[in-house]
Amino acid sequence: MGVLAAERIKLTSTKSPRWSSVIVVVLGLGLAAVIGITSRISVQSSDRQLSDGNTPDIEPILPSTFDALAGVSGFGVTVLMIMAALTITSEYRFGVIRTTFQATPNRGAVLGAKALLVGVFGLVLTFVLGFGALYLAAATAGADAGELLNLDVDGSWRVVYGTAILAFLQIVIAVGVGALVRQSAGAIALLLLWPLVVESLFGLFGSLGRALQPFLPWANANHFLGQGSDIDFHWGPFGSLLYFIVFTAIIFGAAVLVTNRRDA
Q1: Are 201 and 212 in contact, with CB atoms under 8 Å apart?
Q2: Which of 62, 178, 218, 245 has the most crowded CB, counting CB atoms within 10 A?
Q3: What is the pLDDT of residues 129-168, one digit of tens each?
């Protein structure tokens, strides 16, 4: 409890978590509103052209729950991951980590407290924002364009709670990567490039790349949320969630092991 209290004070006494939270809220809700407005305009434009006897230039956009939560599950969680990595890399940068480990010799407990506090915060924030983004997108889209933006549609509820679960797991990964790399720039680059760039490149390597795609961690995270249908996974959505949990445990376990073995 003392470790948790110490990490809570660190987390709440700096401006970074507050600004990061504001950014997550703005990105999550702002993108949901943009998606809703864009879909409404597309449907109105299509209806107008049909009423004039013309063929619509483009198909009307009917966003799904996954689309409405893209700002939360994509940009928002990315910001939370960066914030989580900085909770450990900043201490290495300024030499505070030595004092932390002197006060708490159990280094695994320190990493666990950081991951737990930021992870629970991210889970709650993304869960609340998930509902907010869904209903804001539905309100701005209107009845016609927003017909898929409700929890009665198959898979919608899983996207909402799944986004929060994956946010928690990705924050734990970020703390682990921060402890392994120690450098803020390196940790942030790795956390951004792996899910956004590296995994997308596997599809370019022919049959070998396609064979490896079902085992990529963030591909499995997207599969759990109902995406990645072009990949031939060997298990269902909840199997992908379990796979991502195991991957998270491996990264965080490696971070604890390495942190215990090397000098602060």
Answers
A1: no
A2: 178
A3: 999 999 999 999 888 878 888 888 888 899 999 999 999 9
Q: Token match 């980590």: residue? A: 97
CA–CA gap between residue 257 and residue 186 (Å, rounded) = 20
Give the number of residues written for the chain. 264
Could you state, in order of their start, the residue ranges of all structural domains in the chain? 2-193
Does the predicted TM-score (pTM) go above 0.85? yes
Kindly state the tokens that stand for 174: 């970020």
CB 233 within 8 A of CB 157: no
DSSP 240-255: HHHHHHHHHHHHHHHH
Average pLDDT value over all residues in the chain: 87
pLDDT of residue 54: 63
Whole-number Å distance between alpha carbons of 92 and 187? 12
Record the tokens describing residue 81, joined without a space.
């991951």
